[in-house]
Amino acid sequence: MLFQPFTFKNGQTAKNRFFKSAMEEQLAKHNRPTEQLVRLYDTWAKGGAGVLVTGNVMVADNGKGSINDVVLTDDRSMDTLKAWAKAGKQNDTLLIMQINHAGKQSPKVLSPTPVAPSAVALQGMDGFINPPRELAAGEIEELVGRFIETARLAEQAGFSGVQIHGAHGYLISQFLSPHHNRRNDKWGGSLENRMRFLVEIYQGIRAAVGSEFLVGLKLNSADFQKGGFDENDSIRVVQKMSELGIDFIEISGGNYESPEMLTAKESTKKREAFFLDYAEKARAVSQVPLIITGGFRSEAAMNEALQSGHLDFIGIARPFALMPDLPDKIRQGTYQTITTNRIKTGVAAVDNKIGAVLEMDWYMAQMALIGKGKQPNPNLSPWKVLLKNLWENGKAGLSTGRS
Ligand SMILES: Cc1cc2nc3c(=O)[nH]c(=O)nc-3n(C[C@H](O)[C@H](O)[C@H](O)COP(=O)(O)O)c2cc1C
Description:
Elements: E1 6-7, E2 13-14, E3 18-20, H1 35-46, E4 51-53, E5 57-58, E6 70-71, H2 78-88, E7 94-100, E8 115-116, E9 133-134, H3 137-157, E10 161-166, H4 171-176, H5 191-208, E11 214-220, H6 231-243, E12 248-252, H7 266-270, H8 276-285, E13 290-293, H9 299-307, E14 313-316, H10 318-322, H11 326-332, H12 348-371, H13 382-393
Parallel strand pairs: 3-4, 3-14, 4-7, 5-6, 5-7, 7-10, 8-9, 10-11, 11-12, 12-13, 13-14
Antiparallel strand pairs: 1-2
Helix pairs in contact: 1-2, 1-12, 2-3, 3-5, 6-8, 12-13
This protein binds flavin mononucleotide.
């Protein structure tokens, strides 16, 4: 089943069921995409995935999650964007740009006062992230427009579609969460109101782009946070977005305060797919093309998940940074199951404090190698990655998000 093509309702076809999930590459310079980024996607497209999703591209300068994010607000970088789209679409690959605004998950060196639906501070991020201020209603409307504009520019550059990042605690996910969204205007309160930001972004994009352009969503199955966005809310969002005609939904979970997307429980990890049970519940209410992401490593687990009939694509992130041709290897029968152990320095004080940052940085370093035309290095020293980050970005580098 992994190699069965899939045709979306708007006519675009993915040649197989491998969906390379978004990983922020940190390969932009001054907000703009670079040649290194283009080379990375050239390699991935040649590796055989049916769908490639870019790392999050930010819709506004005040919404960056990390220092070297791409920010796309105008057509100044259209040449490089076109080269990026061309490279990523080679070999009959669909290339989707993930579009995002970090909201309150923006480090203080980038956003002295980040914005959010309500002024609710993140817990445990004092050193790196400042408490947010509440967005005014007019600013919310303006941000809806920013998402639409970025999607329009992605289409102009030749991308196959966009994925709205509604997961992992970023701005859209902050609106969805009753913990983070305490508003009592039309943007907060009931789930219908909390969903409004997402719905308006989706509808605005759909109206601004051609009917063939894919518009999808990444959504949390839950935030795994007391009083937060839970599974019932999430299933209702799937239902609503399906009714509105969204082209696909990718399921993940967690946020900065509770990073389930990277670190599932031991029991879940063994079963590989972190969010499989959720897929069954979502499929019961909707036929929208579904992807689940988090933990897939063995060919057997991927096949089993597809055969369950509850999902349509296998979302994979970290393994692609170590093995860009993972789909081709499976097709050729040469795949040896990849393991992705936690990246650790071995010094508990360091690992406990910045373990997730180190994990992200280590994979970003692998993507940087591929972008330079080199091979990934599974033996890369975590210390080397850490020191390089500190050298280049100072303390600010340690606040790199988890996307
Ligand atoms: C280095 C790195 C960067 C990431 N950046 C993003 C991102 O930009 N957007 C996003 O939705 N998820 C991002 N993620 C999360 C992945 O898409 C995925 O949900 C997570 O890694 C679990 O999948 P895996 O077990 O196959 O790696 C990132 C993960 C890593 C390791």
